[in-house]
Amino acid sequence: MIFLKKQSLADTKKLAEHLAGFLSAGDLILLRGNLGAGKTTFTRQLVHALSDDPDLIVNSPTFTILQQYTGHGLPFPVYHFDAYRLETIGAADQGFEDYIGADGLTLVEWPDYMKEILPDQYLEIAFSYDGQDRDVRLTAHGARYEKMLDRL
Which residues form a coiled coil (predicted)? Predict the structure, then answer.
């Protein structure tokens, strides 16, 4: 586990840029944190770090549940889920499992609402924000992600 205290938004951007160099197709990142903690900001920075298109628009999939990013110089597709709206219905039988571990990088905000379809191996990034300080905790679940954190 890596714990980063008092991270600014600039620090979050640097973390995303650094992590981008270790990611590959099939990777899964679960993003935890309260509203406004930095989950979507981190995702935006990560997608921009992977892309060669500075004008690529990366929006929160709050209402669509899933945003897909392909092209734009991305080395693989990026699937960005915001599972918040799945709280009452869950993710089973929605077809979302087809995106996890497939040909791209999958990022899931509010992963507890998709837990029935998530594998046991993933990188968890938890953001906490109290209005002043932002802390970030990275936790590896599985050998691949343990090696990734060791190299970070």
Answer: none
Report the C-alpha gap between 148 and 128 in whole angstroms.
22
Domain boundaries, the chain: 2-151
**0.90 cut: is pTM over it?**
yes
Q: Report CA torsion sign: 39, 45, 47, 53.
A: positive
Question: What are 13-25's pLDDT values in tens digits?
Answer: 899 999 999 999 9
Nearest to 112 by CA among 137, 82, 135, 136: 82
How does strand 66-69 pair with strand 78-82? antiparallel
Give per-residue pLDDT as tens, 126-149: 999 887 778 999 999 999 999 999
The arrangement of secondary structure in 2-151, i.e. its CATH architecture, is 3-Layer(aba) Sandwich (3.40)
Q: Return the closest-CA partner of residue 80 out of 35, 31, 9, 11.
A: 31
